[in-house]
Design brief:
- It comes from Corallococcus sicarius.
- It is a single chain.
- By secondary structure, the chain is an alpha/beta fold.
- It has 2 domains: about 110 residues, Urease, subunit C, domain 1 (Roll), CATH 2.30.40.10; about 280 residues, TIM Barrel.
- It contains 13 helices and 18 strands.
- The protein is globular and about 65 Å long.
Amino acid sequence: MGTVLKGGYVVELEPASVERVDLRIEGERIVARGEDLTPAPDDEVVALSGKLVFPGLVNAHHRLSYVLARGWVRPTPASYQALLEQVRWPFENALDLDAVQVAATAGGLESIQCGTTTLFDLHASPHAVTGSLLRMARGLHEVGVRGVLAYAVTDRMGAVGREEGLEETVSFARKARGRFRGQVGAGPVFTLGDDALQGLGEALNTTNTGLHFPLAEDPLDERLSNERHGNPPVTRLLNGNLLSPRAMAAHAGHLEWADLAQVLATGTWLVHTPRSNQEQEVGYAPALKFGARASLGTDGTSADLFAEAQAAYLRSREAGQPIDVLRYLANGHRLASQVFEAAIGPMREGSVADLLVMDYLSPTPLTAETLAWHVIHGLGSRHVEAVMVDGVWRVWARRPLSVNPTVVADQSREAATAVWARLNQP
């Protein structure tokens, strides 16, 4: 038994195309594409009547736990270092395993309702390390979203905390199956001593994965890395053989061109997070210079990747360095395809059936030539009507099928209240 999507406009991002064709899905794959496909006798037929069939989006750098920080009355930091020490790190320290799982469900639900079918999360909960990625996977599994999870290893909690983080990120990467994969994660490079870099290298060799980490979000990363460890972040990463075509560096807003060129030469993916950069007031990352392996992530902001793509383009235009927003989105699919070793994104035979049905009544012609402008100025999460992951409907008629949104919201508010209470303790 399969599913036939009839009468929709199927969208491809790169090369861009918009074509009125049918798709047939069997199991987790697209098995046929063509005009007026004939369904098998036991196929489910979905009449789309001109709606868009859009590739499921990939969020290349997210922080699921920060959904519990939304609305928290926090200190107003005077610098990036104060932001870390007074806001981010205390919040992460206040997380327990129950909060981690609830945040994954709530953040995963928000993601899939916004059209994201795959997300890469870099997690930290220093007082609840062991088992945290498994709890995140359980939360995401409830929703049905695809996840690539990593624990952010750091020395800021001492050697014991570092080793606990290494064990967690390696353990999950070894066990992850199905819709989940693991990566080796790291905190800011200035929080990593030489022993940590060596441990990360060993973890990468053990797991045969890539490193997911923030890089040069603020000039503080380079300054403290030089002061504490005698070299800038890129030099230390290169010396440790930690950069590769499997590595993912988020932000990269404050790198000298020579350092950026060295990162690009390793094939490392660069993940642009414009809304987070604006919120943290860390300046604009020159995304046009990020090369052919650049994608988009939402970091700790809302999980709306359509909004991120629009912000990315408009901010780049304002800076006089406009990016190709369709390529950035398509690169998310290339990244996910690399990690899952399957074609994710192309709406073609043999590809994994991760897709969106979007109820978008275009006010102007929607063609390959105009697609980017519709993404930038028109299409949005409000148009997501149905979501399929691995050939299974996870959202239908704008309603999640495997969780009750009211229950998820109640649990999330309860978890957030407990986390905030711990933050307010003297």
